[in-house]
Each structure stands twice: as structure tokens, then as C-alpha cells.
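Example with several molecule types.
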Amino acid sequence: MIDRRLIRDNPERVREGLTRRQAGADLLDKVFQLDRIHRTNIHSIETLQHERNVASQEIATRKKQGEDIENLHASMKVTSAKIKELEATNKAIEEELDVLLLTIPNLPHASVPDGADAASNKVVRTVGTAKKPFDDVLPHWEMGEKLGILDLEAGRIVSGRGFIVFRGDGALLCRALIQLMLDMHIEQGYVEVSIPFLVHRASMTGTGQLPKFEVDMYRCAEDDLFLIPTAEVPVTNLHRESTLEKDKLPIRYCAYSPCFRREAGSHGADTRGLLRVHQFDKVEMVKFVHPDSSYDELETLTTDATAVLDALELPYRVVTLCAGDLGFASAKTYDLETYAPGVDKWLEVSSCSNFEDFQARRAEIRLRKSDGEKHKFVHTLNGSGLALPRVVASILEVHQTPTGRVRIPAKLRPYMRGKEFLG
RNA sequence: GGAGAGGUGGCCGAGUAGGUCUAAGGCGACGGUUUGCUAAACCGUUGUACGGGCUUAAACCUGUACCGAGGGUUCGAAUCCCUCCCUCUCCGCCA
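Resulting C-alpha cells for the full complex:
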């Protein structure tokens, strides 16, 4: 959530940022206007309350002395009614204001390039080469089914399209990847946490999935709980409504979780194989940092994620998202894309973002101030390290051999019972 | 699912026959005095949010709200009433 005061004091800056990310700035005028009325009302209410407090005191004193207080009673009754009325009005305004504010996306950081959509994203660096290892590389779904490690039909039978079943080495590969990633991140200084996969509304609102994107979530109506679309939600909310000590920062977590996404509105895109599914496994990194260092932390977060791609010997590129392609809560995002020669595509396997204080303000994750300092929020960041199915797809295509086998990268072999090839 | 107990500041904890509660006291933290150093002792400070004033800004001054949440009664609510949420204990059920 954007600071209300920023909208009040510097509406043009907010307008500019929203325009840059292709978000309508029309809500802004409404917020500006409501905020002003809200403050005027507060002033009136407080004046009346002050009046009431003084009178109450006087009534108490006079009553002790046995004086007549009927007049005061009568006039205070009127005052109280006025207060009640104004409070009701202002509560309505505040609710409206909250909804509006929760719907406004974060502002892009100054270093984020201009642009309306993904076409304007900038490649920061490329590692390895994006080319076919040999001519007729099979797409991952064909390779996977040929090896008997991927069973898309079974997924359809059990749960419908978009759900996948891995068998044998396929299942082992998933488990191995999760383990490798977690071990690497622990080595990099992250604390592993194991978290709930169902969360309530407040958590979803804290990280920004709600109220705007409810249709994208799986929801258990009976208990009003949501299946998490990413571990970012429970992990970031670990510190919801709390104040963090400066000397405890940065806090770095990593976590494995399955991720559930309805993918509403994206039917027809990437329907084959592992590229777009309703449930997938992911290892996520989350950081809580001091505002001064959040952009440095974004860089190391990104290299902590690319280290996994290096370990898996996969070619990849790091892309800075342009303002128009930025996620709702993010101020700056690097996407990591690995090349899959079988489908000839760059696959997004990670998204590393700095949310600055956008999530922290929503989730009330504060930073304890030192003397004479204005009260602050921490900055939160997260990045996948990495999302599994697309990594598996990439492995099945990049490490494919002309003889129809798939080589297991050396760093992964200890987690794969020492095997060199899949299947 | 059933029964009971309870939710008060960073933490512990008092306070409910409504009116200096402007929330005691303690701990912790911070500052100071003392001290060769540390500790102890003593003195002092100590929340959050939102307004207003002053200001480049901070500091500061001032006001209001906040005792789980929301309503109600009242001139006045931590205190009385209603609804809801959460935590704990016991019982039941269960991997």
C-alpha cells in the first residue's frame, strides 16, 4: 500500500509512477478528495470530544458539591449525538479510502525502464548460450513421457488439466531439486522454514494478493482459507503486525511449498507440458531488510537464485521488468529465464522483487526506531529459487542427448542416488 | 464437537459498586551520577496511530483515540450490556 501521506503531499509523483506502470491514476483524485474530507472531520470530532471531556470532568466535580447539572446534561447529550454522527460518516469514508488504497499498485523504482509491456523488458545479462544441442531436440513432455517419468494423462484423470504426475525418476528429480535448492540457500545464509499452505484473508491482503486478485486463488469457502499461490505469502506474513529490531536485520528465510494458481483467464496459453499448471513446487527466498540496503539485497537475492541455475548447468538470462510489466506489489523485479531448446522459449523460472515498504505497510511489519527517528517500515523482498516444473522442462531439453537420454547435472547427482541419467 | 478460564503498554502484572485511569507497580531498554574497569546502587526517561500549531526539516508545543474486535447504555466506559474473534486447560474424536 502506498503511503497516504505521499498521495497528500506529492500527488504528482504518485500520478507519474502509476502512469508509468500503465495503471489508471483516476483513483488518485478520489483518494485525495476523501482524505481531505476525512481530516476535516477528524478535526471537528476531536474538538467536540475535547468539549465533552472537559464537561464530563465538570459534571463530576459539581455533582460532588451537590450542584444542579441538568443544563449541562442536556447540552452534552446534543454534543455526543453530533460526535456519533460524524464518527459514522468518517468511518464510511475511511472504509472507502482503505479499499481504494489497497487497490493501488506500488510505484516503480527510478531505475526501472519505461515501457508498456514485456516487449520493453531489458536483458541485463545472459549466461550460457541459447541454442539447440542437436537438431531434433524433443520438447520436454515428449521426452518425459518417453522416459516414463512424466504422466500428464494421470494428472488429468486425477484432477483435470493443469495437474501433473511425476513417476519414478521424475518424482525423485523433483525431490532432489527441492533439496539441492534448500541446501544451497541455507549455505547462502537463509534460514529454512516450513510453513502452512493454507492462509487466511489477512495474510493474503498483507502481501498484496487480495483484495484485487481473489479470482486467481483457490479458496476453501467453509473456512475462508486460501491455498497459497507462493510461499511468499506465509513467509512474509511470519512477521505480520510486529516490530523488528534493527540489529536483527536482515532476516533471510527460504522455504519449500507447493503453489496453487487458478490461472483464470490464461486458458489456451502454454497448454502442453509443464509450462503452465495449477499446482507446482517451488523453493522461495524472502528477506526483511533495512530500507537503506534493500536494493543491494535485491542484487544478492538475484545472484543467490542464479547460483541454482549455474549449479544445474542451465543457460539463462536476467531480465529487468519494465514499469508496465511489473507485478502489483513490486517496485523493481528481475525475472530469471532459462532457455528451453525443445520448445525454443525462454522460461520464467524466478522472479526476484523488491517491494520496498509496500507489503510491510499492508502487513504492519515495522522497524523499531532509534532515538529521534521517524517511525519506519522494513523493506521486504522475495525471489523464487526456483520454480520446479519449468526447471524440470529445461533440464529435459537442455541436457537431452542425441541418443535420447537426459544427463543429470553433476551437482544434482548426490541427491539422485548417484545416477548420471534419468529414466 | 463439549465444558471451563482468560485476552491490559516492548514484556510481566494491578485495576471492574462507571468520574484526578491523564492506566499503579515491576522487568527490560535508554540517559545520567558514582566507579581504575565491570557489576551494583541511586536519579531520570520510556508506547502507537491520527490531527492541529510552529518549522526547510527535526525537535518542540497542543489535541484526540487506543486496555482482543465491533456495537450498545450513559453527560462520562478498561470497568455495565450484546455480538464476534483469538489463546489456554480439560474431555471427546483423529494421523
